[in-house]
């Protein structure tokens, strides 16, 4: 997709830009997603384009929360579908949890194109088998009018009854702040990946991984595979999202190493 040489110091960042642009061209990512990606990229610069200790701390807690969940669900929007489809599917595999398409900007057919994009990356083969009587098999669930979230008026209120609506823990990388707030008001726990520790999502989520989603997802999958129930439950009990966000802010401000 790019003529940027691998030796370029900005190679990874520029490659991710190209991936997002390709997502727009394929009708997967909204053009508004370009703005969101650019904003996140600015914060990635500020954390050194690396997974910092505050992110690792959140990843450990997130792994515990997701593994201990009764009905975890992985919510997918256009940006994350374009950037990390394989990692999303791997997460679904290690959790035995379905993916569910949920987007804010609903250009004609974009939800279905996201689903098809994930299926091309073998989502159907890696997640749990279809349930009898469920219209959309749990490979990639789609929003319906049969179930709606409370406390929100945008398109993101429409969800699948056996997906986000039923879930006790929702993994929502690159989240929309309004829906994160609505999910919390409904009593659900929310794990998010957000490069901006000052966003509404970051502040309202149960656990916020302040990192680039392409780095965080593989680490989260690895942590889930290494999950040790007693030890990780203690990790979750002592976790403070507010403290983690403060560490991220101190790192970004240059006032310390984040500890």
Percentage of residues in helical conformation: 40-55%
**Low-confidence blocks of residues:** 125-138
- Number of DSSP strand runs: 8
Q: How many angstroms separate the termini?
A: 39 Å
Question: How are strands sequenced across the largest beta sheet?
Answer: 3-2-1-6-7-8
Report the radius of gyration as a whole number of Å. Answer: 17 Å
Proportion in β-strands: 5-15%
User: Major sheet, described briefly?
Assistant: 6 strands, parallel
Notes on the structure:
With 259 residues, the chain is α/β, with parallel strands linked by helices. The chain has twelve helices and eight strands. α1 (11-25) runs antiparallel to α2, α3 (53-68) crosses α11 and α5 runs parallel beside α10 (213-225). The relative contact order is 0.16. The N and C termini lie far apart (39 Å). The model is unreliable at 125-138 (pLDDT under 50).
Write the layout of secondary structure elements.
Elements: H1 11-25, H2 32-46, H3 53-68, E1 72-76, H4 78-83, H5 85-95, E2 99-101, H6 110-120, H7 123-126, E3 140-141, E4 147-148, E5 158-159, E6 169-171, H8 177-185, E7 189-193, H9 200-204, E8 207-209, H10 213-225, H11 229-238, H12 241-253
Parallel strand pairs: 1-2, 1-6, 2-3, 6-7, 7-8
Antiparallel strand pairs: 4-5
Helix pairs in contact: 1-2, 3-10, 3-11, 3-12, 5-10
